[in-house]
Amino acid sequence: MTASEGLVELDVTGYANGGAGIARRGGRVIFVDGALPGETVQAQITDDSHVAYAKAIAATIVVPSDRRVAPGCPAAAAGAGCCNLSAVDPAYARELGATALADVLRRIGGFSGDAPTAPAVEALAEQSTGWRIRTRLAVGRDGRAGLRGRRSSTIVTEPCAAPVAGLLDDVDALGARPGTELVLMAGADGTRHAGELEAARVARGGGRRRSAQRSRGARSGLRAVRNLAGDDLVTHRVGARSWEVPVTGFWQAHRNAPETYVDAAVTMLAEVGVTGSVHAWDLYGGAGVFAASLLDRGAAHGFTVTSVDLVDTDPGALAAAEVTLADDPVRIHRGAVAATVAGLDRPQIVVSDPPRSGSGLAVVDAITAADPTAVVHVGCDAASFARDLGRFAANGYRVRAWRAFDAFPMTHHIEAIAVLTR
Ligand SMILES: C[S@@+](CC[C@H](N)C(=O)[O-])C[C@H]1O[C@@H](n2cnc3c(N)ncnc32)[C@H](O)[C@@H]1O
Q: Using one digit for the tens of pLDDT, what is the confidence trace for 157-216?
């Protein structure tokens, strides 16, 4: 290893959850953004403040991996923070995702030989481009819309390759005003819907970390939406059901995700022996896609869902659920899961599909205290998924089956689903 002009030469030997390559130098682990296992890179150290590890960015690939491919996403190639694995062979990216998942299941979840073998990551579509049905773009002072830079607040106007065909066509002609965000969503029939989200009001001061947190909080808070194209409500379909979801509301990003996940959940519940009449909880249920499929598909798999408690915080998603599930035995609860579950009827089945931060230990404890026969736990962040599963295991629930999906192709993110029983 040599150091020149602030760069260090590193041999990358592993891959970490989060998409960085792993190298070692002077007894420390170095997480190298943009590097793959087997590569030698010249890297710039970006964070040297920790005793056990440092962070770096690959500046030059000296010896490339033979699994590198031509970058598939123009926006990422121009520095946008979207498709961080767009220059990696998609099959190899899935292998790396499975390796990272297995690693966090062991290290964070504490899983070893008594759990099923960690799952492979399955593709949701043949292509790794053209899968994303919703996206948010920042609108710059010049009125041009684009993705934020990976390590900067610059706006990259080259197109991302992830959105479905047509979603990003001529976005600047939609008329979103400078400083706002442009929200785009494709409906089940392919129609594009667009809204302008008013600029987030972010309080100032308190250091870089605090202000980044404030900025995220402000962006996710309630903000006015001005319709720019299509409708305020977007029609999505799963099986024979349809939902009318606000253009800013939650819907799975990959066009094939909802059908795949509900099919996986119902099939795995049957495989672990759920039978008879059951009451279910659909926690972090959004518009009630899992609730509907449990009701509609259980009978074909040997169990009958007689009623569901659906819990979510998002008023738009719950309004969609109220319409779609109006004639079904579903009680809708608006509120945080942690504050709501204690008052619900005892379930035999629980589906829990939290945001990236996971359910957290208190919610896992509340679920296991209700003593369900089976839990379907879904995670879009491998580390929080592993942590939550570890808590289920500590509370006496065993993973009986799990699957993982390449739900965000060309990125390091994966989605995983586990079914547990006591
Ligand atoms: C990954 S989404 C899953 C939605 C739904 N299961 C689906 O597949 O469409 C996570 C959901 O959790 C909701 N949410 C986030 N934090 C929550 C909390 N503390 N309590 C209840 N719901 C929450 C969000 O509004 C969002 O709908």
A: 999 999 999 999 999 999 999 999 999 999 999 999 999 998 876 555 555 545 544 444
Handedness of CA 106, 110, 112, 116 (dihedral sign): negative
The pTM (predicted TM-score) of the whole model is: 0.92
Distance 324 CA to ligand 1 centre (A): 17
Six-digit token string for 80: 């946008």
**Residue 284, ligand 1, Cβ within 6 A:** yes
User: Is 53 annotated as a binding-site member?
Assistant: no
Hey, whose CA ends up nearest to atom 15 of ligand 1?
Answer: 355
Atom index in ligand 1 nearest the CA of residue 285 equals 6
Q: Is the pLDDT of residue 6 over 80?
A: no
pLDDT at 56 over 80: yes
The model's confidence at residue 234, banded by pLDDT at 50, 70 and 90, is very high
Measure 284 CA to ligand 1 centroid, in angstroms.
Answer: 4
Q: Which phi and psi (to 5°) does residue 105 adopt?
A: -60, -35
In the reported structure, the alpha carbon of residue 49 is separated from the centroid of ligand 1 by a whole-number distance in angstroms of 35
Q: What single letter denotes the amino acid at residue 173?
A: A
User: Within the chain, what is the greatest distance between any pair of CA atoms?
Assistant: 69
- Amino acid identity, residue 279? H
Region 241-268 average pLDDT: 97
Ligand 1 touching residue 312 (CB < 6 A): yes
| Ligand 1 geometric centre to CA of 180 (Å) | 25
Ordered structural domains, the chain, with CATH = 3-66 (2.40.50.140), 93-126+236-421 (3.40.50.150), 134-232 (no CATH)
Under DSSP, the state recorded for 341 is G
Mutate to test the pocket of ligand 1, among 238, 313, 361 (most ligand atoms within 8 A of CB): 313
Task: Tell whether residue 15 is among the known ligand binding residues.
Answer: no
Residue 73 annotated to the active site: no
Contacts of 220 (CB under 8 A, 6+ apart): none
Among 48, 36, 47, 40, which Cα is nearest to 84's? 36
**Active-site residue, from 73, 82, 83, 380:** 380
- Could you give the 3-state DSSP secondary structure of residue 391? helix
Q: How far apart are CA 228 and CA 75, in angstroms?
A: 23
